[in-house]
């Protein structure tokens, strides 16, 4: 088994590259190859220097593929903890990879001006492929497709390299305005496609005296924990909710639709339309008969499952205009889990929380909760307590039986940046928060104090878009911009498992009611279903 480690980096303030497409096409090319069982692909997104080192130690790859920006003599462009650009110099890269010379067979630096790094790395690695000039995004992707088509067909590195070069000349559809240089050079609009210059062709460096590569010992493959994905959305998936019986799952997307899926059959049951903007959040009533979805246009729709027939497809029980401004809930539309308190909540851009009757959609009350947008909400089991997280790094807990606007407590600077998601473990009385600072934090639900002994869970290399707590309250699932889903023990803070397979940022994650499945979705347009370890 040969491991291909794909590292991607597209920091804030740099031109947006089509890295998701590149990673997807590499996966698809190897998946269709006759030798697909001989390769394992590991993906790390939003890569920091520390992630580069750790992934080399953890995955022991034979091929390392970097896709992102390059700056020539300045170095490769990785990311800081805040997602900003951090240059890693050629000498530092060479020193790192020298420690893996008997393990890594080939490095592909799919970034502008990366021949500088290739010259340094070739002292230690048998084959290094770099770019000698500025390369358009489309050319970089075309080379990757051709190269890995060759690798998957059993070709040597030299042969795969030639196939990649050929792909640039034959497959490139047109000129690209986005390059992999740190500061892109704009090209005139409506300019005729240029003749492809030779300098766009990558450079292959071969070590004069090849290292003796130690391939890993083959071990029997472990049973797959990932089921067949649910595919159908045409844009980012923003939110997911299981039905109480676990048979169906409800999804929302930037494609302005909500969908209902049969989990066991892996097929679409209903396509619900009517929202005029991206659908950011979904929720489910405790009995599973009412499904809620809210859009960026401030509209909340209550979909009655009894009306989801062929004749009445798309009919709603009610439509609520939650606010005149944009709804800013990122990951979930919280519904009270207590059937005796049939309510749901929305959080708005102006910092208000509104409470609504679940059965009728009637407004009940609003709370001026935060001085910045409300990004996350979570109900306690009794439906009486509601936690809120804001853009200004603050968490508050509210007693909804109190008609005033004073929270039970406030956690200031709960994260270094935005509080993107909240979840509550009622069994362990723990409030879980996920932040843009790439951390998960645990708080005492009653007091708001830091949970002891483990307060901060670290391991994600990108911002934590969503956290969810298992039905028994013992585990946390987290979805991140680093393309992974992680499973944690809530008592010890131990990382139990990392699920890889998404080809883009993972925006949402949720548990089934029996805790046996986790569903996740994000930028790669797929809903993935993961069987939980016993």
Write the layout of secondary structure elements.
Layout: E1 2-9, H1 19-31, E2 39-44, H2 49-59, E3 63-68, E4 76-79, E5 85-88, H3 90-98, E6 106-110, H4 115-121, E7 127-130, H5 137-152, H6 157-171, E8 203-206, E9 230-231, E10 237-242, E11 248-253, E12 258-262, E13 267-272, E14 279-284, E15 290-295, E16 299-304, E17 318-321, E18 343-347, E19 352-357, E20 363-368, E21 374-379, E22 385-390, E23 395-399, E24 409-411, E25 419-425, E26 430-435, E27 440-444, E28 456-457, E29 464-469, E30 475-480, E31 485-489, E32 495-499, E33 506-511, E34 517-522, E35 526-531
Parallel strand pairs: 1-2, 1-3, 3-6, 6-7
Antiparallel strand pairs: 4-5, 7-8, 9-35, 10-11, 11-12, 12-13, 14-15, 15-16, 16-17, 18-19, 19-20, 21-22, 22-23, 23-24, 25-26, 26-27, 27-28, 29-30, 30-31, 31-32, 33-34, 34-35
Helix pairs in contact: 1-5, 3-4, 5-6
What does this structure look like?
The chain is mostly beta strands and 534 residues long. Among the domains are: 2-206, Rossmann fold (3-Layer(aba) Sandwich); 414-534, 7 Propeller (Methylamine Dehydrogenase, Chain H). 13% of the residues lie in helices and 35% in strands. The chain has 6 helices and 35 strands. The chain has a 6-stranded mixed β-sheet, sandwiched between helices. Strands 9-35-34-33 form a 4-stranded antiparallel β-sheet, with no helix packed on it. Residues 183-195 and 217-224 have low confidence and may be disordered.
């Amino acid at each position: 088994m040969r491991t291909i480690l794909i590292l991607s980096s597209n920091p804030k303030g740099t031109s947006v590259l089509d890295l998701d497409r590149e990673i997807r096409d590499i996966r698809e090319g190897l998946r269709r190859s006759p030798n697909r069982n001989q390769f394992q692909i590991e993906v790390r997104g939003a890569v920091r220097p520390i992630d580069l080192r750790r992934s080399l130690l953890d995955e022991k790859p034979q091929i390392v593929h970097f896709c992102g920006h390059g700056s020539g003599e300045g170095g490769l462009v990785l990311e800081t903890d805040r997602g900003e650009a951090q240059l890693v110099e050629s000498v530092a890269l060479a020193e790192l990879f020298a420690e893996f010379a008997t393990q890594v067979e080939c490095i592909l630096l799919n970034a502008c001006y990366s021949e500088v790094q290739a010259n340094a790395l070739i002292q230690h690695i048998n084959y290094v492929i770099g770019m000698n000039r500025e390369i358009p995004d489309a050319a970089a992707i075309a080379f990757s497709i051709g190269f890995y088509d060759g690798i998957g067909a059993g070709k040597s590195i030299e042969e795969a390299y030639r196939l990649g070069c050929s792909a640039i000349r034959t497959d490139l559809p047109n000129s690209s305005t986005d390059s992999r240089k740190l500061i892109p050079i704009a090209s005139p609009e409506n300019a005729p496609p240029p003749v492809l210059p030779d300098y766009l062709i990558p450079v292959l460096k071969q070590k004069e005296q090849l290292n003796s590569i130690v391939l890993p010992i083959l071990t029997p493959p472990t049973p797959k924990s990932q089921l067949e994905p649910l595919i159908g959305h045409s844009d980012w998936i923003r939110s997911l909710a299981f039905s109480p019986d676990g048979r169906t799952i409800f999804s929302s997307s930037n494609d302005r639709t909500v969908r209902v899926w049969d989990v066991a059959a892996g097929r679409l049951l209903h396509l619900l339309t009517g929202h005029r903007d991206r659908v950011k959040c979904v929720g489910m009533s405790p009995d599973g008969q009412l499904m809620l979805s809210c859009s960026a246009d401030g509209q909340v729709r209550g979909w009655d499952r009894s009306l989801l027939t062929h004749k009445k497809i798309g009919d709603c029980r009610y439509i609520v205009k939650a606010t005149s401004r944009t709804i800013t809930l990122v990951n979930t539309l919280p519904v009270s889990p207590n059937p005796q308190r049939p309510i749901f909540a929305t959080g708005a851009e102006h910092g208000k929380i509104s409470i609504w009757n679940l059965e009728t959609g009637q407004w009940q009350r609003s709370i001026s909760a935060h001085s910045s947008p409300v990004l996350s909400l979570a109900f306690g089991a009794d439906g009486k307590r509601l936690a809120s997280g804001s853009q200004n790094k603050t968490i508050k807990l509210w007693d909804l039986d109190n008609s005033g606007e004073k929270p039970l407590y406030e956690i200031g600077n709960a994260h270094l940046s935005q509080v993107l998601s909240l979840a509550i473990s009622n069994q362990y009385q723990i409030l879980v928060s996920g932040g843009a600072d790439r951390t998960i934090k645990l708080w005492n639900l009653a007091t708001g104090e830091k949970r002891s002994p483990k307060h901060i869970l670290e391991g994600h290399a990108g911002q934590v878009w969503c956290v969810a707590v298992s039905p028994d309250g013992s585990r946390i699932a987290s979805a991140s911009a680093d393309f992974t889903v992680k499973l944690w023990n809530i008592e010890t803070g131990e990382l139990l498992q990392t699920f890889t397979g998404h080809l883009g940022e993972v925006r949402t994650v949720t548990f089934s009611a029996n805790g046996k499945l986790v569903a996740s979705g994000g930028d790669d347009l797929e809903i993935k279903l993961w069987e939980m370890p016993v």
